[in-house]
Design a protein that fits this description.
The complex is a heterodimer of chains A (about 260) and B (about 350).
Chain A lengths: L3 E12 L2 E12 L3 E5 L6 H8 L7 E6 L7 E2 L5 H7 L1 E3 L12 H9 L16 H20 L15 H13 L5 E5 L7 H17 L3 E5 L3 H7 L2 E6 L2 E6 L1 H6 L1 H8 L1 H5 L1
Chain B lengths: L1 H32 L2 H26 L7 H16 L2 H7 L7 H4 L5 H23 L4 H21 L1 H4 L14 H20 L1 H11 L1 H6 L4 H27 L9 H14 L4 H17 L8 E2 L2 E2 L8 H16 L12 H15 L1
Antiparallel strand pairs in B: 1-2
Chain lengths: ~260, ~350
């Protein structure tokens, strides 16, 4: 299929007098793994929040083309509609349903695709609803197994080790059956070995679930290792974009990250 | 492993059925074994458990701090009573204002009236949830409290419909052990099934992290409205049962105190625990009755015990107990956990292991 999976056109986001995102135009090709980087406070997470419907942009729009069907504008849709359209995300500061077990977390993620209505499962009168419940439970278990979380199946999500919580959040996002995944700092808090494993993990996810992935990351090893294309934000504006090798050498990027002197050196 | 689990499942189901049957046999025999006062308390335990379960769904499961339960109970109690009372009773009772003519002839059997009571309370719950559930936390508590008071004042002043402050008298005492525990069983069954279904996961997800739930494609507003409405249905049913056991209802029965009672049951039992609400109901109902003895003068030899015999003393002691629970076991008796046979057996085997 042609055309980008996600495109942002002239996005402007203001918080009072603060210009958080300034005329941002970028896109993510279908099946691509794309990075969005920039120093702290550059507006990366704000971009995610606009895409997933939590912030309304002052101007500009976001266009999403799902696996099947034509591209559609998703700006202005509520977050749950955007998820239904096929976008899923994880959070910088892991947001699991802490009191629920791991498998319940994943099952709750699958609810958006559930066809039976809430009252159908009170009395065992609807075979189709009962079958669907069983399928959801089974595929949630399979998803946990796929991400290596089977031993935490019935453990409370908040009691899981940090890395497992990150993976559980991804499992939950995948259970909404997305065609596009937004990862907000997936390597945060991981040791070098874990982040090295993350590279293959992300690539495998993309291939296995035929996803397009946009990720925010500070760990440059991860960004350079996994991303096919990188967009760089600084103070809300796009300052560069290109292949990892080009970004590495780009003086504006070096300046934004390390200051003017480093760029001139 | 899975065969063992299957065997356990069969055993647990067998034990549950056995427990229900033996309790049913006990209820059948209760009128011969217990006096009227104790039977009244038994009934109140069931009604309070229904109320506790419904508030637990709203507060414990869906995380909405609601202080409006008494208002929805009032709606249920009045709807049920107005449907049961005969036209003759109605004409005799309305002395301040004549009764609204359309209401005079409305009549329904007991169980239908209970259902109607639940539906009416659910309707009011749904109505108020639209504007109010956009609020969160304490604001929601204040708004629901306000709405509950509005309902009570409406009932006090809509004399042609509710007989105003005089209330309704002579409601036949339809609520007996069979009815109250039967409805409790249905309530328990529905609550368990609801919370075990994936929609139950969704309700808890909305409570745990609303932002994440919305991102996962859950229409959180709709979910909360639904949970609130179902909870209000339970409040209406509980209120109706209460009216049918006390046989007299008036607006003063449904003040904030009634809400606090139910809230206490939920908090003591454990927020978010279904079995906890039942345990909480037993504890609170029995304690409130049992503590009445301190309101009678307690004599030690020939001197009266300090402060004993003062009316209202049981509430003082009860409040102290409640403070104790909050300090030492904030999660309540059951926490967020549920009673299960497996847990019970492992508890006993641990005890035995310690003793050996």
């Amino acid at each position: 299929m042609s055309g980008p999976a996600l495109s942002l056109r002239g996005l402007v986001l203001r918080f009072g007098g603060l210009l958080a995102v300034n005329d941002l135009t970028m896109e993510v090709p279908r099946g691509g793994i794309v990075g969005l980087i920039g120093p702290n406070g550059a507006g990366k997470t704000s971009v995610f929040n606009v895409v997933t419907g939590f912030y309304k942009p002052a101007s500009g729009y976001v266009e999403f083309s799902p696996q099947e069907g034509p591209a559609r504008k998703i700006t202005g849709l509520p977050p749950h509609e955007i998820c239904r359209a096929g976008l899923a995300r994880t959070f910088q500061n892991i947001r699991l349903f802490g009191n629920a077990t791991a498998v319940e977390n994943v099952m709750a993620g699958a609810y958006v695709r559930e066809k039976s209505r809430w009252w159908m499962n009170i009395l065992p009168l609807f075979p189709s609803a009962m079958r669907e419940e069983r399928e959801i439970r089974e595929s949630a278990a399979a998803m946990l197994e796929r991400l290596g979380l089977e031993k935490y199946m019935d453990a409370a999500a908040s009691s899981l080790p940090y890395g497992a919580q990150r993976r559980l959040e991804i499992a939950r996002a995948l259970s909404t059956k997305p065609s596009f995944l937004l990862l907000d700092e997936p390597a945060a808090g991981m040791n070098p070995q874990e982040s090295a494993e993350l590279l293959t993990f992300i690539r495998n996810l993309r291939d296995e679930f035929s996803l397009s992935i946009l990720l925010i990351e500070h760990d440059m090893k991860v960004v350079m290792g996994v991303c096919e294309h990188i967009w760089v934000l600084d103070q809300g504006s796009l300052i560069a974009n290109g292949k990892p090798d080009e970004i590495k050498k780009d003086p504006r990027v070096i300046e934004a990250y390390l200051g003017k002197e480093a760029a001139n050196a | 492993m899975s065969a063992e689990r299957g065997a356990k499942k069969v055993r647990n189901r067998f034990l549950t059925v056995l427990a229900i049957i033996s309790f049913a046999v006990f209820l059948q025999q209760a009128p011969n074994l217990l006096d009227g006062y104790k039977i009244r308390i038994m009934n109140m335990i069931a009604i309070n458990a229904i109320l506790g379960l419904s508030l637990n769904l709203i507060y414990g499961m869906a995380g909405m701090f609601s202080l409006g339960h008494a208002g929805f109970m009032a709606v249920g109690a009045y709807v049920s009573a107005l449907l049961i009372l005969t036209p003759a009773q109605k004409t005799a009772m309305w002395i301040l204002d004549p009764i609204a003519p359309w209401l005079l002839g409305v009549h329904a059997p007991f169980l239908i009236s209970i259902l109607a009571a639940g539906l009416a309370a659910a309707f009011f719950g749904w109505l108020i949830s639209m504007p109010v559930l956009r609020l969160g936390g304490d604001y929601l508590g204040i708004a629901t409290l306000g709405f509950s008071e509005i309902l009570r004042i409406l009932i006090t002043n809509l004399t042609p419909i509710t007989n105003g402050p005089l209330g309704l008298k002579g409601i036949p005492a339809h609520t007996n052990l069979r009815v109250s525990y039967g409805i409790l069983l249905v309530t328990l069954f529905c609550t368990v099934r609801l919370m075990k279904s994936n929609f139950g996961n969704v309700i808890k997800a909305v409570r745990d992290d609303e932002t994440a739930a919305r991102t996962m494609g859950i229409n959180t507003f709709q979910t909360r409205v639904l949970a609130f409405t179902i909870g209000c249905f339970g409040a209406g049913v509980g209120g109706a049962l209460m009216g049918n056991i006390i046989t007299t209802i008036d607006p003063r029965m449904f003040t904030i105190n009634q809400t606090y009672n139910t809230l206490m049951i939920v908090v003591i039992g454990g927020l978010g625990s279904i079995t906890g609400s039942v345990v909480g109901s037993v504890l609170v109902t029995v304690m409130l009755e049992w503590l009445r003895f301190v309101e009678n003068p307690i004599m030690i030899g020939s001197t009266q015990l300090f402060l004993s015999g003062k009316p209202g003393m049981r509430m003082v002691i009860f409040s102290l107990l409640l403070i104790g629970v909050i300090i030492f076991r904030r999660e309540g008796v059951m926490g967020m956990k549920e009673f299960s046979w497996d847990r019970l057996f492992s508890f006993f085997s641990r005890q035995r292991g310690d003793a050996a």
